[in-house]
């Protein structure tokens, strides 16, 4: 069976499972945690803000996390953003806002919105107009760990940019949520950034899948960052031991080896009022060659406890097939169907198994 056939069979199985899910949902304890999704989960659709809101309403979500400026189609003025906010409110969908790197020395930084300070100022203003209580940003990715001065130097540069907009953020009532992104910062490093900048206006966008990319068990990382969590971008992860070390592949919620009931027991207690946004970025593996000496150059302060936690998690996992769309004219449509199905399964698992979501499911 080809990976595409396996994915198609998985999609059909998911549809059958979703049809039966409402029968079991009545017995699930409701946690009172708002549920939504990150627009990057359906990036292949190339939807604008209103189309994303419509999909959130279709999935009976409480919230939509727009984590880049693209869906606003270049209309960043307050009047246009307020219109989007009202469009969401009319459909029962709150909007959270995010964007990308504000670290001027990161390999990921782009000048699309001017300098880092201008980018952050724009995001704060946009968030206020949209009614988003926080504006999500990132530092960079795992390549920054091997840059001149290491991740510590990149953290220092990011803190300077954050401090430059402290007054603007506080006056606007918008906090800045820095993500643990693509292997850039471990939880304790991100905690250091928040405390150096000032937790009165800076917090965390917690990404459970990215925690695995910095060699951390997502639950352990959440324990460290919970007091600072403002927003989330969550997915499940399958981990397994491989010839070169550890291999990870992000998955739909409930299809990896993260202990999600324990995760959300902790989240419910430690992050009251924070919305869960699902960001499925599934289908591809990434291997971490932990047995190679050079690999650890990026982790000069690595702790045995972190690695031990990830190894224990990998013991529970198994290899899974990557998603490979057909090499044909149907490739884009296959990717769209795959992303929509991953998100749909995740939302239903969160609502019907884990008890997330405030808005009632459709009758």
State the end-to-end distance.
37 Å
Kindly state the number of beta strands. Answer: 11
Q: Estimate the helix proportion, in percent.
A: 40-55%
Number of helices: 12
Biggest sheet descriptor = 8 strands, parallel
CATH topology of the domain at 32-235 and 256-280 and 330-352: TIM Barrel
What ranges have pLDDT less than 50 throughout 5 or more consecutive residues?
1-13, 19-24
What share of the residues does DSSP label as strand, in percent? 15-25%
Helix/strand order, N-terminal first? HEHEHEHEHHEHEHHEEEHEEHH
User: What is the assigned CATH homologous superfamily of the domain at 32-235 and 256-280 and 330-352?
Assistant: Divalent-metal-dependent TIM barrel enzymes
Q: Which class of the domain at 32-235 and 256-280 and 330-352 in CATH terms? A: Alpha Beta
Which sequence of strands runs across the widest sheet? 7-6-5-4-3-2-1-10
Average pLDDT rating = 93
CATH architecture of the domain at 32-235 and 256-280 and 330-352: Alpha-Beta Barrel
Structural class: alpha/beta
Radius of gyration: 20 Å
Shape, please? globular
Report on the structure:
With 363 residues, the protein is α/β, with parallel strands linked by helices. The chain has a domain of 252 residues: Divalent-metal-dependent TIM barrel enzymes (TIM Barrel, Alpha-Beta Barrel). Helices cover 42% and strands 15% of the residues. It is built from twelve helices and eleven strands. The strands form two sheets. Strands 7-6-5-4-3-2-1-10 form an eight-stranded parallel beta sheet, covered by helices on one side. Strand 8 and strand 9 form a beta hairpin. Helix 1 packs parallel to helix 12, helix 5 runs parallel beside helix 7 and helix 7 packs parallel to helix 9. The longest helix is centred in the N-terminal third of the chain and has 23 residues.
């Amino acid at each position: 069976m080809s990976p595409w056939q396996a994915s198609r069979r998985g999609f059909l199985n998911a549809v059958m499972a979703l049809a039966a899910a409402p029968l079991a949902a009545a017995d699930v304890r409701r946690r009172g945690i708002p549920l939504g999704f990150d627009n990057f989960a359906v990036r292949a659709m190339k939807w604008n803000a209103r189309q994303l809101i419509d999909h959130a309403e279709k999935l009976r979500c409480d919230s939509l996390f727009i984590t880049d400026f693209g869906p606003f189609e270049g209309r960043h003025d307050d009047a246009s953003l307020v219109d989007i906010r009202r469009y969401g409110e009319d459909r029962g969908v709150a909007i959270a806002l995010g964007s990308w790197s504000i670290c001027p020395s990161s390999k990921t930084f782009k000048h699309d919105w001017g300098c880092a300070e201008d980018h952050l100022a724009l995001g704060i203003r946009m968030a206020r107009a949209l009614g988003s209580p926080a504006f999500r940003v990132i530092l960079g990715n795992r390549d920054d760990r091997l840059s001149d001065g290491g991740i510590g130097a990149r953290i220092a540069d990011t803190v300077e940019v954050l401090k430059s907009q402290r007054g603007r953020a506080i006056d606007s009532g918008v906090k800045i949520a820095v993500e643990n992104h693509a292997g850039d910062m471990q939880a304790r490093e991100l905690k250091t950034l928040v405390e150096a900048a000032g937790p009165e206006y800076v917090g965390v966008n917690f990404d459970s899948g990215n925690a695995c990319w910095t060699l951390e068990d997502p639950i352990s990382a959440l324990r460290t960052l919970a007091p600072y969590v403002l927003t989330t971008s969550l997915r499940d992860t399958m981990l397994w031991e491989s010839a070169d070390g550890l291999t990870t592949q992000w998955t739909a919620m409930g299809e990896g080896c993260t202990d999600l009931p324990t995760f959300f027991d902790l989240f419910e207690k430690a992050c009251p009022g924070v919305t869960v946004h699902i960001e499925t970025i599934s289908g591809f593996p990434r291997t971490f060659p932990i047995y190679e000496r050079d690999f650890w150059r990026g982790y000069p302060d690595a702790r045995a406890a972190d690695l031990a936690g990830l190894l224990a998690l990998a013991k529970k996992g198994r290899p899974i097939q990557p998603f490979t769309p057909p090499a044909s004219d149907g490739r884009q449509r296959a990717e769209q169907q795959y992303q929509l199905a991953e998100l749909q399964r995740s939302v239903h698992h969160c609502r019907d198994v884990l008890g997330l979501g405030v808005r009632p499911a459709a009758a």
